[in-house]
Structures are given as structure tokens and as C-alpha cells.
Write a structure and sequence with these properties.
It contains 9 helices and 14 strands. The protein is α/β, with parallel strands linked by helices. This is Leucine-rich repeat domain-containing protein.
Length: 372
């Protein structure tokens, strides 16, 4: 007769199986007693330290090779920690800091930068404090950085050229606040930089002239307190741009036309709280690769949708806060690849939604309407 597992034996076997890795995980909570002591010291002085120990299997074949040494990556947030000698010494105990977050509480003197420069493996750096020229020089020494977030503050625009050393940088986020002055004319080409996020919330005008130096840029997000279309002319020269988000921009009709005539490769476009001059989307008529369009609290009308009918790849549209009516749905029904539509806070009626569902039964339409 064939042997079978009994339920008690089966449960006992797996209880032992899972107990082993749990015990090992507890033992490996920290890489060493010294690292444990350093982390507890940092946390006790306002830092936040996050890390994940690697998991190991409970069983391994007898001929398996010894596991390779695994260096644990650490995320360190120093927003609430002061740069005392003791705290800096504790930082140096951490073997691999991959992400680092700094603010004004952590004084950036020559001594602190000398300590931070030991993190040669650093990939992600965020400094939410007003920078000075010397800060940019030190930041440029982190050659392995993949993402960088900074507030320009008192930095002379010419010092942005130091970022040329960041040959591996893929994502750059720049904040301009208060009375900060900013110019991007000295922004160098960074060969791997594909994403740029600009938070332009200062009181002074900022021109984007110079961002055309970023030859490989694929994604641009401009979140401004208020910005004129004439200040965005540099965008038109980003020939490889695929994703563009603009917030609080005000265009003249000619500005809009000039920009989108050259952005032939654009696939995703988002207008948020913008003014398009004539409430018209005709400037988008030649974006043959456009797949997704979002128009949020940006006035457009029914006729403006007619110019989008011939866009061959448009498959997703989100419109919120506009005067589109049932007449506009007639244009949506003609868009060949459009299969997902969101319409919120418009003048579309239940009858209009029913009609487009009948015309395009495979199109998914989300359009909550208010009955008067």
C-alpha cells in the first residue's frame, strides 16, 4: 500500500521548516553589533534609518556554493538630525547608504560634506533647503547619483554647470521658491537624464531657456505658481520629449502653436489649471504619436475636440472642469483608437453618455453627471 502523509505529521514538518528562517531573520536583523549601535544612536538623535536584510532559504543542496556577500542598502533621512561630531561618526559606520535626505537642520559645512563624500555608492539625494554655490560643487562629486532633488536658493546659475559630472543621473527635480532667482542657461547636458521636474513656485519670473541642453530628456513636468507660455519656449527644442505635464501656464494662441509644431514624438500630455488662449486644442493636431491626453481645470470647448479626431494613436482622455457638452461626444466617437474616457464636472448629460456607449460599445466611458 502506498504511504501517505498524516495531517499531524504534515503540520509538524512545515512548522519546523518555517521556524528556521524566522530564527535566522531575527539573528540577521542587523549586519553587525557595531551597525546596530550606530543605527540606534542615529535614530535617537532624530534620524530615520531604513534597510532590508536579505532573506535566505532554510535548505540548500550540499554542493551549493557559499552565498555571495550581500551589502545591505540603507535609506537615511536626516531632516531632524544635527550634524554633530558624534552623529557624523555614527553615519560613517553604515556600509552602503543608497538614499539620503537632508534639510536645513543638518548643517552642510566642509566637515559634513567630507563625511557625506564617503558615500560613494549614493544613488538618490534630496536636499530640501536653500543651496549655496559650494553645495553644488560637493553634489557633483557623487558620480553614481541616479536621482537628485534640490532647491536652488542662493545658487548662481552658472554653477549648474558642475552637474555635468553627474554622468549617471536619470532624474532631476528642482525647486524654486520665495525670492529665489533661477536660470537654466548653464544647465549642462547629462547623457542619461531622462526626467526633469521643475517646481517653480517663486515670486520672480523664470524662463526655461537652456533646458534644450538636455538632449536625452524624455519626461518634463513644469509645476509653476504661474508662468507665461512665452517663458516655456525652450520646451519646443526638446526633440526627444515623450511626456509633458504643464501646470498653471498661460498661453497665447501663437505660443501654443509654436511649441507643439516641434514636439512630434510626444506620447503623453497633461494640462492642469492652464489657459490655452483660445480654449482650443488645434495646436495638437499634428501630434501623431500622442496616446494619452489629460485636461484638468483647463477651459476647452466642443469644437476643440474636433481637431483631435485624426490623431491615430490617442487611446486615453481625461477631462475635468470644462464646458464640453453632448456635442463634444460626437467628436470623441470618431477617434479611431480612443478606448478610455473620463469626463468629470462637464456639461455632458445622461443622454449623451448613453448615446456614445451605443456608438462605441467597446469604449469605456466614466462620466458622472449631475441631474438638474
Amino acid at each position: 500500500m502506498m504511504n501517505t502523509f498524516t495531517l499531524p505529521g504534515y503540520c509538524c514538518f512545515f512548522s519546523v521548516l518555517f521556524a528556521v528562517p524566522l530564527l535566522q531573520a531575527e539573528e540577521r536583523k542587523y549586519e553587525s553589533p557595531e551597525i546596530r549601535q550606530a543605527i540606534l544612536h542615529l535614530q535617537g538623535n532624530g534620524a530615520r534609518v531604513h534597510f532590508n536584510m536579505p532573506r535566505t532559504g532554510a535548505f540548500r543542496p550540499a554542493n551549493a556554493q557559499r552565498e555571495k556577500e550581500y551589502s545591505v542598502p540603507y535609506t537615511v533621512n536626516l531632516y531632524e538630525m544635527k550634524a554633530t561630531a558624534e552623529n557624523l561618526s555614527a553615519l560613517l559606520v553604515l556600509p552602503q547608504v543608497e538614499r539620503l535626505y537632508l534639510s536645513n537642520e543638518f548643517d552642510r559645512s566642509d566637515r559634513t560634506w567630507k563625511t557625506l563624500s564617503q558615500f560613494g555608492e549614493l544613488q538618490h539625494l534630496s536636499i530640501m533647503d536653500s543651496l549655496k554655490n559650494e553645495d553644488i560643487e560637493h553634489i557633483a562629486e557623487f558620480s553614481n547619483l541616479q536621482s537628485l532633488e534640490i532647491r536652488l536658493g542662493d545658487v548662481d546659475s552658472s554653477y549648474l554647470w558642475y552637474l555635468e559630472e553627474l554622468r549617471n543621473l536619470q532624474r532631476l527635480s528642482i525647486h524654486v521658491d520665495g525670492d529665489d532667482e533661477a536660470s537654466f542657461t548653464s544647465l549642462p547636458n547629462m547623457p542619461k537624464l531622462s526626467q526633469l521636474i521643475l517646481h517653480l513656485h517663486g515670486t520672480k519670473p523664470v524662463s526655461l531657456d537652456g533646458i534644450e541642453n538636455l538632449k536625452e530628456l524624455r519626461s518634463l513636468n513644469v509645476n509653476a505658481r504661474a508662468i507665461q507660455g512665452s517663458e516655456l519656449k525652450g520646451i519646443a527644442k526638446l526633440s526627444h520629449l515623450q511626456l509633458l505635464t504643464l501646470a498653471n501656464a498661460e498661453f497665447a494662441a501663437s505660443d501654443l502653436e509654436m511649441m507643439f509644431q516641434q514636439l512630434k514624438g510626444l506620447e503623453y500630455l497633461n494640462f492642469t489649471n492652464c489657459k490655452l488662449g483660445t480654449n482650443d486644442l488645434s495646436a495638437l493636431k499634428n501630434l501623431s504619436k500622442l496616446q494619452r491626453l489629460q485636461v484638468y481645470n483647463t477651459p476647452i470647448d466642443d469644437d476643440s475636440l474636433a481637431t483631435l479626431v485624426d490623431l491615430p494613436e490617442l487611446n486615453y482622455m481625461y477631462v475635468r472642469g470644462s464646458d464640453i457638452t453632448d456635442d463634444g461626444l460626437k467628436h470623441l466617437a470618431k477617434m479611431p483608437k480612443l478606448n478610455r474616457v473620463y469626463l468629470y464636472h462637464t456639461k455632458v448629460t445622461p443622454e449623451g453618455v448613453k448615446w456614445i456607449n451605443e456608438q462605441r460599445p467597446k469604449m469605456k466611458v466614466s462620466a458622472p453627471v449631475q441631474n438638474n
